[in-house]
Amino acid sequence: MPVKEKTVNPVKTLIESADVAPRSRRPRGLVPEIVTALEGDMAEGKLLPGDKLPTEAALMARFEVSRTVVREAISRMQAAGRVETRHGIGTFVIARTEQLPAFHIAPQDMATVADVIAVLELRISLESEAASMAAQRRDDVHLAAMAAALASFEAAIQANSDAVPSDFQFHMEVARATGNRHFADLMTYLGAVIIPRTRLKTASEAPEGRLTYLRRVHHEHESIYCAIRDRDAEAARAAMRTHLANSRERLRRAQLANPSMSVQ
């Protein structure tokens, strides 16, 4: 009797292959833990200026977290001026200086709903053009990184997470796909705080419910990805603008419905 071949669901395989943190803690709490530990290594002299940080795989094993969480921690340290990433080589400790980055949005700069909306307006102009450029310049490596972020987002939804790290990672990968390092550098400076869910309970308090809300965001990300994959610059620009404008309008409606709505 012939053996029936096992069919493989490519979408399921992609999601299962994404790096999902094995811990039950929220990713938002894991990132500061990694940053604090690495800064502690620097303070103790275990990591000196010029030293290369351990690989992503090594950090994932040390802290028992996903690749997305490790990358977010590194992004925060880059924004703080503690490390720099040399593409194709690795991430290195840099000497600490008193000079702060010329532009930075810190959590305290997102103290009101109006502040969150203002940052979304900045992102609309910046990221819409980035998506257009990404559609024209991306390569297969960029597409794979975006697909991994999408898979991680989907897995986070199933794991009852707010999916903030994978959300930010997707937008970061779009910025990297522009081929212009300044887009990625600016996204690094901004950090994951630009994701509204880091400051507002937009998912848990959404009228349609958390799962429906996050799936809508995920679908919008997929539309951006498909346009970039198809090298359709105008569609990519429009998809990103629609995605961020939708976030802005959802916040405005939520604020009108609940004037006392406040940031976390």
Supply database-style keywords.
single chain, 264 residues, mainly alpha, Arc Repressor Mutant, subunit A, Four Helix Bundle (Hemerythrin (Met), subunit A), 2 domains, two-stranded antiparallel ribbon, globular, disordered N terminus
Q: Quick recap of the structure?
A:
This protein has 264 residues and is mostly helical.
Strand order of the largest sheet: 1-2
- Give the tally of structural domains: 2
Instruction: Please write the CATH class name of the largest domain.
Output: Mainly Alpha
CATH level 3 topology of the largest domain: Four Helix Bundle (Hemerythrin (Met), subunit A)
For the sheet with most strands, the description reads: 2 strands, antiparallel
Q: How helix-rich are the residues, as a percent range?
A: 55-70%
Q: What general outline do the C-alpha atoms trace?
A: globular
Polypeptide structure, described:
The chain has 264 residues and is mostly helical. The chain has two domains: 20-93, Winged helix-like DNA-binding domain superfamily/Winged helix DNA-binding domain (Arc Repressor Mutant, subunit A); 107-257, GntR ligand-binding domain-like (Four Helix Bundle (Hemerythrin (Met), subunit A), Up-down Bundle). The protein has helices spanning 10-17, 27-43, 56-63, 67-79, 113-137, 140-158, 164-176, 181-190, 210-229, 233-257; strands at 83-86, 90-93. A hairpin with a 3-residue loop joins β1 (83-86) and β2. α2 packs across α4 (67-79), α5 crosses α7 and α9 runs antiparallel to α10 (233-257). It is globular and about 50 Å long.
